Amino acid sequence: MASGTATSPYELRFDSGRICLDLLATTHPEERIGSAAPLRAWITGSGLVPADTPLTSADSSWIVGFRELRHHIGQLVRGEPDRDSEPFGAALARVNELARAAPPVPSAVWDDDGSLVRVLRSPPTCSALLAAVARDTVELLTDPAARASIRQCEGDNCPIVYLDTSRGRRRRWCSSEVCGNRERVARHRRRAALARA
Hints:
Blueprint lengths: L18 H6 L11 H10 L14 H18 L8 H14 L6 E5 L5 E5 L5 H17 L1 H5 L1 E3 L8 E3 L12 H21 L1
Antiparallel strand pairs: 1-2, 3-4
Helix pairs in contact: 3-4, 3-5, 4-5
């Protein structure tokens, strides 16, 4: 899948460690998939489809589906699974339902310079892409090691959830360059203020 911290012009992030968590990050610091263009950029940036895949059928109905799935993912990954929780159970049932659809079918083909590249056999449908994200969610929820690595960013007012795959599992922020830098600057300012006092 794609990596990096941002994709212009929508400031999309792909650094959480899972596609489903990258979708969850599209709510911060504000709604990132408010129209079809940024949704298309997210779908491509996440690696769900090859970079040159036309997504001309992605419209406002797709936005509704992706936002709904994003809401359910948030309910499932923030906190411990609770068999008796009605919201958790409803979210889990919906994710399982979405995961039943067939995901996009990739093929390896030769490109013009003789390299094998990934293409989709047909244009992806919304349900196929939602299925791919829902399946990623199911894999995350059912993998004890991955689930134990889910962390909430410790940055001020940052709701980003990510997988901590760092050595020693001591990662504190969704991004050292974003929230980590803000924390270091704030710490420096507090020390400077104390030194002046």
